[in-house]
Specification:
The chain is α/β, with parallel strands linked by helices and about 140 residues long. Strand 3 (about 95-100), helix 5 (about 105-115) and strand 4 form a beta-alpha-beta unit. A 4-stranded parallel beta sheet has the order 2-1-3-4. It has helices at about 20-25, 35-40, 55-60, 75-80, 105-115, 125-135, and strands spanning about 45-50, 65-70, 95-100, 120-125.
């Protein structure tokens, strides 16, 4: 009996490494730098969301005015249609800038928010460490 070749269906993708995954998700939106994020937050044009865990916030401080939502709660708190949404989750057009420690986890988080329909979600290049290095405000 002759074996037929196995066809790969479009929904079945070959596994990728984290570097390729990051490249793919980042290609889907425009990332921003620390000063652009600061300016957008100051003018009300963006909601800064810090997804770092508590130990990092305690060690390094926080960005004044940033909404703290740890990564494991992000989608539930920012889904405008969700039952556990935060008051800041006002709609799918909300511009969200996700901030992690160095700008890696935030990229995956922003991609996840895009899947929820938050089409203006982005992340901070270099994360909190880039913000701090730029001399932008940090509260201990």
């Amino acid at each position: 009996m002759e074996q037929q070749p196995v066809e790969q269906r479009p929904e079945e993708q070959l596994p990728v490494g984290i570097d390729e995954l990051l490249e793919r998700v980042r290609a889907g939106y425009q990332r921003i730098g620390a000063h652009e994020a600061y300016d957008a937050a100051q003018t009300g044009g963006a909601l800064l969301v810090d997804i770092r865990y508590a130990a990092l916030r305690e060690r390094d401080g926080v960005i004044p005015g940033a909404l703290v939502i740890e990564r494991n709660e992000l989608e539930w708190r920012l889904d405008p249609q969700g039952s556990h949404k935060t008051p800041e989750a006002t709609g799918h057009d909300l511009r969200v800038v996700v901030i992690c420690n160095e700008g890696y986890a935030s990229s995956l988080a922003a991609a996840s928010l895009h899947q929820l329909g938050l089409h203006r979600a982005t992340d901070l290049i270099g994360g909190f460490q880039a913000w701090k290095a730029a001399g932008l405000p940090v509260t201990p």
